[in-house]
Each structure stands twice: as structure tokens, then as C-alpha cells.
């Protein structure tokens, strides 16, 4: 089993690239955000908790997210998988490495999409008009960007410290060109 991670700020195109990559490499793809939105629509206990946190632009507790990812990895041991929207904190990144070690897996293959904060804001405001996501209001978007830079971006520094290579990809450009660059780098 190989574990791929697609990383990057909100609006960097993670979801789009993850879908293409999972098709191109026959990976089982989990988007933690999509999974949480499904829980919200099913009105489960997790969904009720997630809705409140997501609508504020904040992150769910690391323990809850790590349980979800661990169970996903456990159920897909025979396949190669792609994690999208995880890890989002250093504690989640550390938890992932521990789970992978426990399951006897090698190191994760990390891809990060790079895009500056002005472009992020522009894209998310545009997406807010097209999709009807409750967390795409300007106030929540700004909060999500702040959370990304304060809690999520430090994950890249963490991977550097533990000597896990990260493939850096420019997230601005043609969707297919970006995908070719990802395939070329991994
Ligand atoms: P996304 O669709 O990836 O932008 O995720 C939407 C929202 O779900 C985020 O703003 C968070 O509130 C929550 N979420 C998704 N992934 C995680 C994660 N790994 N850790 C904590 N919260 C998450």
C-alpha cells in the first residue's frame, strides 16, 4: 500500500487535482472535507459537530480526524490511497506517520500545490458564487486562510524536520498541465 497526500491551501485546486490523480494512478481517494459534508447531510452526530466547526472556518479536533483516517487506511490496506485535506495540523501529520508505522507502511508521498494568498481569496470568492458551500462567505474564507497559514502550513516544516520529501507544484495554471507536473514529480 502506498499513501499519497495532496496538500495546499483552500482553493489551491487540491480537490480537482486529487480527482485526476486518483483516476490516473487508480488510487482510492478520500477527501476529509467531502466526508464531513456527507455526515452533515446525513445529520449524524459527527455531522452536527462538523457543521458548527466548518461554518466557522475552524478545524475539527485532531483526534476525531485521525480516527477517520485510521479507519479509512485500515479498510483499504490492499490499495494505494490518496489523502486530500489531511493532514491539516502538525499533530495530524505526526499521527499519520505513527499510524503508517503501526501498519508497517513506508513513508507517505507528499505533493503540495503552491499558490499565494491573494489568488486564494480570489478563487474562493469566485467558488462561493458558483457552488453553494456554507463556508464560502467572505468572513469564513478569511478565517480559513488564516487557519491555513497558522496551523496547516507548519506541516511542511514538520515534514522537512522528519526528512520526508515534499514535491512542490505551482498551483496556478492549466489544470492538465498541473496534473502532468504532479505525475512527472512523483
Ligand atoms: P475542505 O473541503 O478540505 O476545504 O474542508 C472543509 C472543512 O472541513 C475545513 O475548513 C475544516 O473545517 C474541515 N476539515 C477538513 N479536513 C480537516 C482536517 N484534516 N482537520 C480538521 N478539519 C478538517
Question: How would you describe the overall organization of this protein?
Answer:
With 186 residues, this protein is α/β, with parallel strands linked by helices. Helices cover 57% and strands 13% of the residues. It is built from nine helices and five strands, in the order βαβαααβαβαααβα. The protein has helices spanning 14-24, 32-41, 45-54, 62-75, 90-102, 117-130, 138-152, 154-161, 175-185, and strands at residues 3-7, 28-31, 81-84, 109-114, 166-170. Strands 2-3-1-4-5 form a five-stranded parallel beta sheet, with helices on both faces. Helix 4 (62-75) packs parallel to helix 5. It is globular, with a radius of gyration of 16 Å. The protein binds adenosine monophosphate.
Can you lay out the helices and strands and say which pair or pack?
Elements lengths: L2 E5 L6 H11 L3 E4 H10 L3 H10 L7 H14 L5 E4 L5 H13 L6 E6 L2 H14 L7 H15 L1 H8 L4 E5 L4 H11 L1
Parallel strand pairs: 1-3, 1-4, 2-3, 4-5
